[in-house]
Amino acid sequence: MIVTTKELFKAAYGKYAIGAYNINNLEQCMGLFRGNVQSKAPFIIQISKGARAYTDKLMLEAIIRAADKVFPEAIFAVHLDHGDEATCMDCIKSGFYSSVMIDASSKPFEENVATTKRVVDAAHAAGLVVEAELGQLGGVEEHVQVSESEAKLTNPDQAKEFVERTGVDSLACAIGTSHGAFKFTGTQGLHFDVLSEIQKRLPNFPLVMHGSSSVPQEEVRRINIAGGKLAGAKGVDDNQFLQAAKLGVTKINIDTDGRLVWCRVHREHFILHPEDFDLRPAGKEFMAAYAEFIAAKNVKLGSAGHLDEVRAMVTK
Ligand code: G3H
Ligand code: 13P
Ligand code: ZN
User: Fold this and answer.
1) Beta-bridge partner residues of 130
2) Contact 242/252 with Cβ under 8 angstroms?
3) Phi, psi torsion values for 214, nearest 5 degrees
4) Which residues sit with their C-beta closer than 6 Å to ligand 2?
5) Is it true that domain 5-314 has CATH number 3.20.20.70?
6) Integer Cα distance of 151 and 135 in angstroms
7) What is the separation, in whole angstroms, between the first and last Cα of the chain?
8) How far is the CA of 126 from the centre of ligand 2 (A)?
9) pLDDT tens, position by position, for the chain (316 residues)?
10) Fewer CB atoms < 10 Å away: N or C end of the chain?
């Protein structure tokens, strides 16, 4: 059942976070649904601009519609990840998405406000909800001065003004994470102090944490043994997810970890079975491994086991 992120946030706020997982193809979609159904978790499917263009946006939509039928017990939102204005408008018009993210965070504050407001107006008129971003993720290296790195993090006062002026439904905040497999070079981590200040100014308002893959060291080790070159890859400590959830983080975005599972399974498979050239055996292994990863991740997010309660909320 496709629902809006707003409905999922209402159920989860302050207690746990909903996993927002990116998909690009059929195998990821199957693993994702299996893992969420097995762990009885509501979830968010994220589709990026790149994923829409990988085959054809209609292919991905059709795969998700089919999964909705194959897994009638699943409850999920379909969300555009990191959209520009044109892509947001296209998704709003399509009638398939339940929420969109407008990412104008690289633009000056006033331009971010104006662009986000245009998307919010169009989305709300069509019954969709909107996530926007304020602050800049990533690239906060150890050699950067504290004042410089603070400037990239979301400013709590600006966050309040941004939400009030745009009418946006949730806000992605920069609190020390970055996208990809190489998030930290040393002892950096999440800025709970900044998060807490944002929550004080925006109580009961859902916040979003991008760049939240934990880059499991065991995956990295196995990938490297199997010929990969990911030395130094490091991610977010997923034991901190629930602490973030209590401070208002209601959606946690994970993509890189799924790519690592894919990479490890395929590298190991073809080393162990050099005679193999069939795509199905490795594909089956990946779907099973990805489902297992998702189910375990939902335990860390606290979303595991909440499916029936969310069903009761959205169907009443
Ligand atoms: O935050 C970005 C996501 O990891 C999506 O990545 O644009 O390569 O699909 P992508
Ligand atoms: P990761 O690269 O940490 O998986 O972050 C994904 C993300 O933020 C998608 O929007
Ligand atoms: Zn992101």
Assistant:
1) 100
2) no
3) -95, -5
4) 22, 81-82, 179-180, 210-213, 253-257
5) yes
6) 8
7) 14
8) 27
9) 999 999 999 999 999 999 999 999 999 999 999 999 999 999 999 999 999 999 999 999 999 999 999 999 999 999 999 999 999 999 999 999 999 999 999 999 999 999 999 999 999 999 999 999 999 987 444 444 455 556 589 999 999 999 999 999 999 999 999 999 999 887 778 999 999 999 999 999 999 999 999 999 999 999 999 999 999 999 999 999 999 999 999 999 999 999 999 999 999 999 999 999 999 999 999 999 999 999 999 999 999 999 999 999 999 8
10) C
Does any ligand 1 atom lie closer than 6 A to the CB of residue 50? yes
- Integer-rounded Cα radius of gyration of the chain: 19
CA gap 92, 244 in Å, rounded: 30
CA distance linking residue 176 with residue 211, whole number of Å:
9
Is the distance from the beta carbon of residue 116 to the nearest atom of ligand 1 less than 6 Å?
no
Residues in the chain: 316
